[in-house]
Amino acid sequence: EPSRLVTPCLTLLLVIPLSDMPLFEANASADTACISTAPVFTKVAAQLDGKAKSHDASWWALMEHNVGRLPGTRSSWAISAAWFAFLAGVASTALIPVPSHWGFFIAILIGLIFSSIWLPDHGDTVLPFCTIIILPIVVFKSVAMGGLWSYSILLFVFVVIPLADFIVGVDVGNQTREIQKELHTAFRFELLTLLVAPGILGCLCYAAWLANSGGLSLLEFGGLSIGTGIITGVVGIVAGHELCHKASRLERVLGRLLLCSATYGHFYVEHTLGHHKDVATDHDPATSRYGESFYEFLPRVVKGEFVNACLIEAARLRRNGLPWWHNEIPVYFLVSAGIALALASLTGPLAVPLFVVQSVVAVLLFESVNYLEHYGLERRELKPGQYEQVQPQHSWDTACRVTNHVMFKLERHADHHAHAGKRYQTLQAYDSSPQLPAGYATMIPLAFFPPLWRMVMHPR
Question: pTM of the prediction?
């Protein structure tokens, strides 16, 4: 009986807490800040501390937020209340009945997103990052609408959000070094990323239940699977990436669980112990080469990350004299299989193909982000095998406010790579980092059309 599989499948998920892969570097120095879990808050001259990023004429944006903000400015209770009301409005759209009020639902949701242009954000409140709830609302309302509307999440992500990035604009604000240190220990930001794990598992369960409810056509099943993959790719893997860079055991366990929910657990090994060390060199499979199309990059990065993860893990076992069964790579795939089987046991057999398709979509989406982040950038080789330190100029940044809220400031990628141990809420925007003209939701479709991508990027 299928229900009998639930206990062993869920028990399999406990394998993650039992495995505790050591960190590459737990303490930070000038040479190891790019790979360490310890935060580094760069000391700068007093007149530059908390200074906003300079205007970039190449940005595709109508507004620039926090241009004249005084260093050390904090959010008032009124600002927090305004963001809370905004989020309440977004959450309430889930109560709008569909399909009878589909047009009303779309109009209200889009209106709310564009209205956020009037909401100040000084970077010290977690509420703007809670806008991640928009994605599951759109996905499941779209499936309820049925037919081709099941795929409307694609229009939302690649049309509505780029328009919002353009109209709402960029956030050039930075925080002082002291406020960064204070925010780094603010639990409210950590709590949100921790809550993503049960949230993603809940979305997978609901999607699997919908798939097995008997009310979906094959067309609608495809829309549901793609939409679920967008949720796990945009929210799940991005939050998992954030958690995997942290020192606490709980964060790394939940980070790996989120990666396994998209069948990409080995990314934890390669990303933290490989990519951050080798970024912007020929040794890094996740750095796209100048002139390399996305379709050339994709098979190279998927294969390269897996092979690198296996090599890194094999080296760890040899270095520590551990037997083969301590290898964590198979564990991650077993956990992914356990999630799929648990979903099938709880909801029905269609959970398995749904899990497979959403994993493919999530990985495709995430690797398209990888393609953007370091395209054509290289570190100087000082002598054979030794490269200059990772600096902000080795990652493409974008200051778009909407997508930075949805993706935990992943688009402030230069600071993340220069100081890997910093939490998302403390990432800064550097004048020295090269700038993408728009947010990831705009740049990904360009990457899918290599001539357009090169036309935009190569002059930069």
Answer: 0.93
Bridging pattern class, strands 381-383 and 386-387: antiparallel
- Rounded-to-integer distance, Cα 314 and Cα 308, Å: 10
Contact 239, 254 (CB under 8 A): no
> Which tokens sit at 161?
């959000």
Print pLDDT tens along the chain (460 aa): 444 555 455 555 545 444 554 444 445 455 555 666 777 788 887 888 889 999 999 999 999 999 988 888 899 999 999 999 999 999 999 999 999 999 999 999 999 999 999 999 999 999 999 999 999 999 999 999 999 999 999 999 999 999 999 999 999 999 999 999 999 999 999 999 999 999 999 999 999 999 999 889 999 999 999 999 999 999 999 999 999 998 888 999 999 999 999 999 999 999 988 999 999 999 999 999 999 999 999 999 999 999 999 999 999 899 889 898 889 999 999 999 999 999 999 999 999 999 999 999 999 999 999 999 999 999 999 988 889 988 899 999 999 999 999 999 999 999 999 888 899 999 999 999 999 999 999 999 999 999 999 999 998 8
Whether 446 and 460 have beta carbons less than 8 Å apart is answered as no
Taking residue 155's Cβ as centre, other Cβ atoms within 10 Å add up to 14
Phi, psi of 65, rounded to the nearest 5 degrees:
-90, 145
Separation of alpha carbons 124 and 130, rounded Å: 13
Residue with tokens 């603010």: 186
- With tokens 């925007």, the residue in question is 429
